[in-house]
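Moderator note: this is an archived Q&A kept for reference. The question asked for a predicted structure of one protein chain; the sequence and the answer are reproduced below.
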Amino acid sequence: MLCLIRLVSLLALPLVIVLSGCASGNARYVETGNQENIVSVGEVDIQDIQKAAAGMLDSLLETGTLKRAARTPALLAIDKVVNDTSSQFDTGELLYRMREQLVNSGQAQVVTVWGANAEDATAKDAATREAFLTGTTGGVQKPDFSLTGKITQIKRQAGQTRQTTYTFRLTLTSMTSGSEVWTKNVDVTKQGVRNSVGW
């Protein structure tokens, strides 16, 4: 009888291990940007983008630059933001988070049909056609400002510990004077031996 109990225990042990492994590995929702998110030492994570967007937005709004434009709300064209890192991500993740707050605050309107990186090709074509048919200089108003940027990284290692600093840079240029009227750098530094969950 004792042998039978031991045999059953030994057979049941792998099942318990498998079931407990499955229970802890179940997918679940976590709040974006909180301490339960995965932190990658060598990649840009959503937390990094949120931190950079918040820092940029706070700085831009505090300067009052947009409020000093000739129009209210100011017209803003978003040009290219270069991702010069080894991490593959859409720079629009940074820009759209800022745009949402800028537009909703009433301080800016984004002109989506302006420049080489126009988002709305249909609207741009319609405005160009309308300008041609009416003989006007253009159906789309020239923006007050253009927003450009670059994201870079510096990687270092000491023993097994890896460190990466991502620098998010944005520049606002006056479309009238061509001068830089606002600029901001936000650094995000991460350090560790391997990727982990939490800060």
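Archived answer notes: Confidence is low (pLDDT under 50) at residues 15-23.
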